[in-house]
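ok so i was messing around last nite and threw this chain in just to see what happens. nothing serious, just curious
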Amino acid sequence: MTRFTRWIRVTTIALLFIGTTARADIAIVINDASTVRQISHSEAVNIFMGRYRRLPNDSVALPIDQAPIKARFYRALVQKDMAEINSYWARLVFSGRASPPQQAGNSEDFLDIMTHNNNALGYVDAARTPPHMRVLLTLSE
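result:
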């Protein structure tokens, strides 16, 4: 096999892998101890966009943003990029009408918050759902 042929194969495999991972579904999850079993897409939009903060069982929801996949999540949830999301939250915070979801800077912070709060609602790559989390809704990119 020539060097060029090997390079073409490696490049093709890398592009296929990148393309596949870029289209991975995102799962909205909750602690397994919660009594909530599912939410609708519109309920997820309303909770993560600050319109209301109640789960279907009427308990207070604690939405959690996860920095590494935040842009993908909001693109899948409301078809908006991060500039639009940041502008939206700036208006709501300035007017005093709502506050954005709590921020988790990395996976460890996210798992800590989700593990210690039964009403915390977060999102992960659907293929990497932690075992102690229940999937409430899956969003396709």
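not much to say yet. Helices lie at 3-22, 41-48, 70-78, 82-95, 107-116.
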